[in-house]
């Protein structure tokens, strides 16, 4: 069950339902996970400063079990996600940062238990 959190100083109007569906689809494909298990949150319009400027930017956090646990995997994920974000949002690569978090099954609760027991 991957968790995708996008934080940005871009306005709400940049993040249509269509964009959310495309981002979900893209990250699911990149991570090799089914779309039905994805959790996606977008937080637009935040006060943000990156690299000394408040120009439009995005921080994408990707938390998942078993697919974000090595530098090699995350390098590949990054290479596949960056073009989507820069293309869809009209940002340059220096205005996008992706953070990867490796989760263990016992760290994710669902249906009154944890993923270790599902």
What can you tell me about this protein's structure?
This protein is of the alpha/beta class and about 120 residues long. About 30% of the residues lie in helices and about 25% in strands. It has helices spanning about 15-30, 70-90, and strands at about 5-10, 40-45, 60-65, 95-105, 110, 115. A four-stranded mixed sheet has the order 2-1-3-4, with helices on one face. The protein has a two-stranded antiparallel ribbon with strand order 5-6. The mean pLDDT is about 95.
Describe this structure in a few short sentences.
The chain is of the alpha/beta class.
Topology (SSEs and partners):
Blueprint (H helix, E strand, L loop, with lengths): L2 E6 L8 H15 L7 E5 L14 E8 L5 H19 L6 E8 L5 E2 L2 E2 L4
Parallel strand pairs: 1-2, 3-4
Antiparallel strand pairs: 1-3, 5-6
Helix pairs in contact: 1-2
């Amino acid at each position: 069950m991957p968790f995708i959190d996008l934080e940005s100083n871009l306005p709400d109007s940049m993040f249509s339902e269509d964009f959310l569906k495309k981002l979900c689809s893209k990250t699911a494909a990149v991570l090799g996970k089914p779309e039905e298990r994805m959790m996606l949150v977008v937080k637009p319009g935040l006060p943000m400063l990156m690299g000394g400027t408040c120009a439009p930017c995005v921080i994408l956090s990707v938390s998942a079990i078993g697919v974000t646990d090595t530098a090699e995997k995350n390098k590949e994920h990054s290479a596949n996600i960056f073009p989507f974000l820069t293309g869809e949002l009209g940002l340059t690569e220096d205005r996008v940062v992706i953070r990867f978090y490796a989760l263990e099954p016992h760290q994710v609760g669902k249906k009154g238990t944890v993923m270790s027991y599902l």
